[in-house]
Amino acid sequence: MSQPLPIVAPSPGAAGRRRAAARWLRALRRTPVALIGAVTIACIVLIALLAPVLAPVGPSAQIATPLLQPGKTFIAGTDQLGRDELNRLIYGARVSLYVGVLAVAVALGIGGTTGVAAGFFGGWLDNVAMRVMDVLFSLPALVLAIAITAILGPSLTNVMLAIGIVYAPTFARIARGPTLAVVRLPYIEAARAIGASTSAIVLRHVVPNVSAPLLVQTTVSLSTAILTEAALSFLGLGTQPPTPSWGLMLSDARQYMLIDPWIAVLPGIAIAVTVLGFNLLGDGLRDLLDPRIRIL
Amino acid sequence: MRYLVRRSLWTIAALLGVSVLIFVLVRLLPGTIVDILTGTEGQLSADQKAAVMHEFGLDRPVPVQYGLWLVSMAHGNFGVSFRSGQPVGDLLVSRLPITIELAVLCVVGVAIVGIPLGILASVSRSVRVKTLVQIVGLLGLSVPNFWIAVLLIIFASYQFHWLPALIYVPVWSQPWVNLQQMFLPVLSLSLGLVAVVVRMTRSSMLEVLSQEFVKVAQAKGVPPFGVLLRHALRNALIPIITVLGLQVGYLLGGVVITEQIFGLPGLGWMLLNGVYQRDYPVVQGTVMLFAATFVVVNLAVDLAYTYLDPRIRYE
Question: Per the confidence metrics, is the pTM higher than 0.95?
């Protein structure tokens, strides 16, 4: 981290919060990239939430001839088992978002806590925790994820855990830097002098300073987590059939892609659009929160 | 020099950490290898089971098992594949060149295409170009490489009636055929990275181009192309190299899927088959080699900085 980090004041009241929300909206309008990302993600979240309405047949019902081309009755055609491809794509959004959000929550929980604790307490705790994170960092992400899922066994929960562990070190490093920077500032000492407890100091004075970079990382990690889930499912180590995961659908499609290319094309588009949405938002947020640019 | 020694020691320590991690992870597996072997090879009596355990050293205390494993690895002995009975070390040696070829072709291809495109994009400072490059760069991060691979296969088969060859040909026996086989895998892995490198090159170049010495060079009459390449690019290379180095991790992960899709019997292919067949020595060996490659590449990237920018001297 070469750039100076902003020091954030303790949280404002209700009126301040409303003003902050308005400022965010204005800032979003000035960074079109973040706005496009936010809208894309909002659409996908909506599709996932409304899946039972949008796809009443469900993802597993075998209702038609297998491998139908996209047409009037089946907008996206059918897959190799005669299931409605569009329904599966819609329900796939649920799987992707679910795994992505929970995996990143695991990473944020493990990594964020470790990083803040390491930076705040320092000493041997800092050393041990960060060295463990370094070891996790010495493996390519996907290889580590494969190794962990191979051992835990392929399932939705395990994929989530594996991805969470793989991305935890990034969060730890990002949380540690700003923590180290504020721990030595006089206002922390002042808080201690007036008798604030450690947990109060961490929550009220340290966490707000760490939250901006962590927010950016969370958004970007959602994109990588969704990609990793798709990759693991593609390899048969992730979500198991009949759950409609986009990666799994793409993998199944490989046998039939020369007869019906659509079933190989559509899940990929779904993955790419979702991941792009999070990347756009993350990138936009990074610009928004960059103290050197200072839009907010 | 002292930095080099410390950095190398740390590299070794990290690899030791990885070895502990792998060892512990494999021991967490449900069931023992005997169950897995007997699952496919019929029922064994308790005595026979014990004999098998003894043969693989699974009856020793766990720390002893780890110590023995580490010592034998240091001697280049990575154990024997549970499935094929071949020494894992030999397998690794025969698989590694394929993965290295794939990765090197990718990095070279990405640099050759991405850096010039990035320089080209840095000539314009307009917001439109910036947004376009930003979106294309993010697209490169977002499109899964295995999907690109699938699309390339579909396209090649429809357009050229071409399918991935079933049998891999080493580069030293038939170089031309080998390069043909490598073309689509390399393309599928590189496309996304090119977009990332273009974006990084552009922003890095813009930062350098706004500095005083560039203006001085222009003022003293250096032709624009010379300013761009001799003065700006040389200084802009460091962040670009960093990004390329970081992407090696992505590449090494991508290699696993790409090799699987295109049937290239490299390290990634070996790792996956080890995982599918629950062949632990193979999994341990490949993961160790992946970690070693990754750590060494990162070390090399660090050292490349001092070469590119003599102002950087590690203490």
Answer: no
